[in-house]
Write a structure and sequence with these properties.
InterPro entries: Alba-like_dom_sf (IPR036882), Alba-like_NAB (IPR051958), DNA/RNA-bd_Alba-like (IPR002775). This is DNA/RNA-binding protein Alba-like domain-containing protein. Pfam families: Alba (PF01918). GO terms for molecular function: RNA binding. It is a single chain. By secondary structure, the chain is of the alpha+beta class. It has a single domain, classed as Translation Initiation Factor IF3 (2-Layer Sandwich), CATH 3.30.110.20. The chain has 3 helices and 6 strands. Strands 1, 2, 3, 4, 5 and 6 form a 6-stranded mixed sheet that branches. Strand 2, helix 1 and strand 3 form a beta-alpha-beta unit. The radius of gyration is 19 Å and the shape is elongated. The two termini are about 25 Å apart.
Length: about 150
């Protein structure tokens, strides 16, 4: 690996894990460099202001813990929210390029699986039948497997 540098990393597309949500649901994608205070300001403003009934925090890789932290802080500050959590593995594509082209090394492409979490917070009580439908669609892997090219 010392003779390669990482050119790019792409998260391969995955279908939504929570299809029963309305289109006006606020979905917050948490990233490594996201500031928790900025994420909380957006989520709390919408939930407390009444303009959002549902908020979904999504994070993958190193941001998984930060997404969970945001969820817990929102639940402490806004009592009465219902929670539904999904864990999955997201498929990514990483491309590695040789540091010096004269060494005769090939470009590498690897497909690692990255842990991810999606947490739904809702003012509305969650219907257990909706949750059962989602789990029947993806019984073992909550993110469908990657198709081979």
């Amino acid at each position: 690996v010392e003779h390669y540098w990482k050119a790019y990393s792409v998260e391969l597309p995955a279908p939504s894990l929570m299809p029963q949500l309305s289109p006006d649901t606020l979905e917050i994608w948490v990233q490594d460099g996201s500031k928790i205070r900025n994420l909380l300001g957006l989520a709390l403003g919408r939930l407390e202001g009444g303009s959002a009934r549902h908020v979904v925090f999504s994070g993958s890789g190193w941001a998984t813990g930060k997404a969970v932290s945001c969820t817990e802080i929102v639940k402490q500050r806004v009592p009465g929210l219902c929670q539904f959590t999904k864990l999955c593995l997201l498929h990514t594509e990483d491309s590695w390029i040789p540091t010096s082209p004269d060494m005769g090394l090939d470009h590498l492409t690897i497909y690692p699986n990255v842990p991810a979490v999606r947490v739904l917070l809702s003012w509305d009580p969650l219907d257990p039948n909706d949750v059962a439908i989602i789990l029947q669609e993806h019984p073992l892997m909550l993110c469908p497997p990657r198709t081979k090219k």
